[in-house]
């Protein structure tokens, strides 16, 4: 066991009087200077920073400070609310990645915390709030679908009424404590005992639109073993507040995972799932003996075109892993993580998204070094690639692994590590 020290990222402190500085590094900004928002400075007063320089300075501040500044003046409120500034601040925040962690044995006991990666590496002891997280008091069933640009997406569903149940979405920004109204409401009718049970959340930058994909797996389990599993897909457009049916996937899931696990991952305008081709039944559990190597496929849905393509896993995957493989996003790339003969963990990186030949092996780590065998989900890799944060999906633990020194810090706190989502602070909000 070891304790790892690292330099924690810190935001600069802010003093409103510091805006009247005579010198600042020049920066380019799309905001147009406004002559009407502030009176011209008199010869005796200090020079006032141009709007684009001021926006550049403010973009380094944490959301809490910016929310306080919005009440200082109409000018600050206008600047900080400007969509261009919000995007600039988001780009800054992406340099300080965080995780969302949840704990609790039931929805009524659901607890939630955001955790900066650097703080976690500095001190793995996590303090989870004692009070349950209750911004959604009027619902019985819900789970955290995903995280994107500082927004968390929650999917809700009612108990069944006859052959259907009510479903809807909420979007929550933890940094600003803003919760959207109920959106995307629909009645989910059962089809041979199947209903929309898997969701994923992402952003289409070309249309500046957030979207949620809902999946329903049908076939196989209804007793007709001659019918291959297929997946019906519908997409919710936040901009239009409507659901639309799109072309389904001719595949089944790797397994019917718990809803809040990382079932679908978001990367650069696409949602991605690990699935099986030519699959005739679905199960809650992974059975390697029932799978052949050629069945593995990654389904990638382009949120702009709302069309999917099939990506092949690494060619270095030579046999069906005894423990279920996973996909995740690390270092801004799609990654494939799998067991090798229950001796080591292998992590691959797709260097060029969509190009199968670009799969490159990042790590091959012996389980004896990790001190645990199991289904590992990579949560974070440092830019120098020397530090890994891994969650064990079977055991309620995570580890911090030092690749250079081959050392492990085991974290066994309360959070459900398999439910972790990437997170960054932002000013983005949805009403």
Structure, described:
Strand 19 and strand 20 form a beta hairpin. This protein is 10% helix and 37% strand. The radius of gyration is 23 Å and the shape is globular. It is built from six helices and 25 strands. The N terminus is likely disordered. With 431 residues, the chain is mainly beta. The strands form six sheets. Strands 3, 4, 5, 6 and 7 form a five-stranded antiparallel sheet that branches. Strands 12, 13, 14, 15 and 16 form a five-stranded antiparallel sheet that branches.
Overview features:
431 residues, mainly beta, five-stranded antiparallel sheet, 6 helices, 10% helix, 37% strand, disordered N terminus
| Helical stretch tally | 6
Task: Give the DSSP E fraction (strand runs of 2 or more residues).
Answer: 35-45%
Number of strands: 25
Biggest beta sheet summary: 5 strands, antiparallel
Low-confidence spans: 1-37
In angstroms, what separates the terminal alpha carbons?
46 Å
Instruction: Identify the overall geometry.
Output: globular
Query: In terms of structural class, how would the helical and strand content be classed?
Result: mainly beta
Which range best describes the helical content: under 10%, 10-25%, 25-40%, 40-55%, 55-70% or over 70%? 10-25%
Mean residue pLDDT: 82
Radius of gyration: 23 Å
Record the SSE blueprint.
Elements: H1 51-58, H2 63-69, H3 74-81, H4 83-93, E1 98-103, E2 111-116, H5 117-122, E3 141-148, E4 151-157, E5 164-173, E6 178-179, E7 183-189, E8 198-204, E9 209-218, E10 230-237, E11 242-249, E12 252-253, E13 264-267, E14 270-276, E15 296-302, E16 307-311, E17 326-330, E18 333-340, E19 344-350, E20 359-366, H6 367-370, E21 376-381, E22 387-392, E23 397-402, E24 407-411, E25 421-423
Antiparallel strand pairs: 1-2, 1-25, 3-4, 4-5, 5-6, 5-7, 8-9, 9-10, 10-11, 12-14, 13-14, 14-15, 15-16, 17-18, 18-19, 19-20, 21-22, 22-23, 23-24
